[in-house]
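Chapter summary example.
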Amino acid sequence: MFFQKKLKRVMTNHKQAEERFAKEREELPLEKNDRLAMILAALVVFIPALIVVAAVFFLVLYVFFLRFL
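The structure predicted for these 69 residues follows.
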């Protein structure tokens, strides 16, 4: 299998990586407006995607059900 050594290394060291991540996360707290920035970034990413999905959904509904009215 390709990347077998890397896969073994990741599978055996995941506990250490999680502990290291938690430790680094505690050492670096959020700044004043970081939470607001993350929420706004999520909205900028997800709202257009939701609009596209809703548009496709309504287009399918129109094509199958409302076209003949």
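To summarize the output: The mean pLDDT is 88.
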